[in-house]
Specification:
Distance between the termini: 47 Å
Number of helices: 14
CATH architecture of the largest domain: 3-Layer(aba) Sandwich
CATH class of the largest domain: Alpha Beta
Helix content: 25-40%
Oligomer: single chain
Structural class: alpha/beta
Shape: globular
Number of domains: 2
Strand content: 15-25%
């Protein structure tokens, strides 16, 4: 099996289940490091590849029986539809050249391109048509709202109901929807492997309940033990306005909320024709109430397997360019560099660094909150996205309006590292990096760098306007993290250590190429 989109919400859950079923699995990833920390990576084959580079796909598709196409560009720029068509053509051509037996595609529940009510839903239908135009048989599964811990649809619903006791809602809350539990989506994706008749198939998948979105919100309040919500409908809120409102009151950014809302502007109910998926993949489907209970239990137990937060909504490769390389060639690069010593071992300092953000917040939290509010107002993701786990981070994780590019615990002969890339709205690119080095007598040293590559004059003005705030935020961050590390040692009853001061913390606003620095 070749899984395209293994770092996504559905793909990240499908891969281990395919492995558990005894299938060999290959994952194609533009950045394989995003899969490095998954629990199943040692059992799968991970190869580097770009679906927009058809010439480089031949080796990735070799010896593959079935391709799972789980890639789509929700929230990835204005040209997302053309991008997804190009990817679909590349997949269809590469599958045909490699002799693949079948392509399985998970699309949206719509009655075709012309009937789709939004550009995103039309794009999902177009991808299915492009795949079907190839010579490899295709199985298309069409789903509406997917309910599961970490899904964008579930998180939007959850936060709307939990935050707002009174909701002024548009007309789309009266649309009829057939939600489906994520475990049923995965069961169908695996079950269709038994279809090997050389024909093209399209199946609608859904749970046993058909509800309006208004009913879905009220049932959520009941399952979550919340007081009954007052829902008042008004005819004036367009999907675009609704998505911006959702972006303000939930962690789901407007870029992702808009296609979700647009998919709800018309009924999304599975077609119960003669060729139903239930006959081919028999089994009991999970009802809506039970799906909510399962999702909430996962959140309560901090056992969210994958999340919408892993979605790349920036539309570019997040790992390029790499500001950790002294041979940076990206032009102007501003830096703010701080160093602080901790009377704690590197492991404790690394744990403190990896615990930043989310519910714990950031040092000088008021400044970060203001930046988050501004980001939400201009259509960004803000701080509400939070983090997958309060204590641990892995490559690809979202951390408020940052994303983890690299994370490595300290070893006997190597420093610890956490490198983040900014995903807030910026006139440029920004990174935040923490290196944890060994100090003398069991202590540790934190090397903290904020890096910014401006775009045009506005990018340069942005940096210099914020320099006074940097003088408040970044020293406090370094100091707070070292104190948290020392508190970890004290609270655990471990021995205290005395660090050798590495020198005064310092900042640089230079815009030349960064020079290599000696550790410490």
């Amino acid at each position: 099996m070749l899984v395209l989109g293994a770092s996504g919400y559905v793909g990240g859950r499908l891969v281990p289940r395919l492995l558990d079923a005894g299938h060999g699995v290959r994952c194609l990833a533009r950045d394989p490091a995003k899969l490095r920390d998954t629990s199943w990576v040692d059992r799968a084959e991970v190869v580097r590849g770009d679906l927009l580079d058809p010439g480089g796909l031949r080796a990735s598709f070799a010896d593959i029986d079935v391709v799972y196409h789980l890639v789509h560009s929700m929230g990835s720029g204005e040209d997302f539809a053309a991008r997804d068509r190009r990817i679909a053509r590349s997949v269809a051509d590469a599958a045909a050249a490699a002799g693949v037996r079948r392509v399985v595609y998970l699309g949206g529940l719509t009655d075709g391109i012309q009937a789709a009510t939004s550009e995103h839903m039309r794009s999902r239908a177009e991808v299915g048509e492009v795949l079907r135009a190839g010579t490899v048989p295709v199985t298309v599964l069409r789903a509406a709202v997917i309910i599961g811990s970490g899904s964008a649809s579930f998180e939007m619903l959850r936060h709307l109901v939990e935050v707002l006791p009174v909701m002024v809602t548009p007309r789309w809350v009266e649309s009829r929807v057939q939600p489906i539990a994520i475990r049923d989506v995965l069961r169908y994706l695996i079950g269709v492997l038994d279809i090997d008749d050389g024909a093209y198939h399209t199946y609608d998948i859904g749970g046993p309940d058909v509800l309006t979105y208004r009913q879905m919100m009220r049932i959520y309040a009941e399952v979550a033990g919340l007081p009954r919500r007052l829902i008042v409908g008004v005819p004036l809120l367009t999907p675009r306005l609704s998505s911006h409102w959702i972006g303000l009151v939930t962690p789901v950014p407007a870029a992702i909320a808009q296609p979700l809302v647009e998919s709800l502007t018309s009924d999304a109910v599975a077609d119960r024709g003669t060729a139903t998926i239930e006959r081919l993949v028999p089994g009991d489907t999970v009802g809506y109430r039970r799906a909510l209970q399962l999702a909430l239990a996962r959140i309560r137990d901090r056992d969210v397997e994958t999340s919408w937060r892993e979605a790349d909504i920036t539309g570019h490769a997040p790992a390029e360019p790499d500001p950790g390389d002294p041979d940076w060639s990206g032009g102007t690069l501003y830096r703010d560099v701080r160093t602080a010593a901790a009377a704690a071992p590197p492991e404790a300092l690394f744990a403190a660094v990896c615990g930043i953000g989310g519910d714990r917040g950031w040092p000088h939290g008021w400044a970060w909150r203001i930046r988050g509010i501004v980001d939400r107002l201009v259509g960004g993701i803000g701080l509400r996205r939070g983090r997958r786990d309060p204590d641990t981070l892995r490559v690809g994780d979202a951390l408020d309006f940052w994303r983890v590019l690299d994370v490595r615990p300290p070893g006997e002969d190597r420093p610890g590292l956490l490198r983040l890339i900014a995903e807030m709205k910026l006139p440029g690119r920004a990174w935040l990096e923490f290196r944890i080095a060994h100090g003398d007598r069991g202590a540790s040293v934190l090397h903290q760098r904020a890096l910014y590559a401006p775009k045009g004059l506005s990018g340069r003005l942005y940096w210099w306007v914020l320099v006074p705030f940097h003088q408040l935020i970044f020293p406090a961050m370094a100091t707070t993290l070292t104190r948290r590390a020392e508190q970890r040692v004290t609270s655990s009853g471990g021995p205290t250590v005395r660090p050798v001061a590495p020198g005064d913390a310092h900042a640089a606003g230079a815009h030349d190429r960064p020079r290599a620095r000696r550790p410490g």
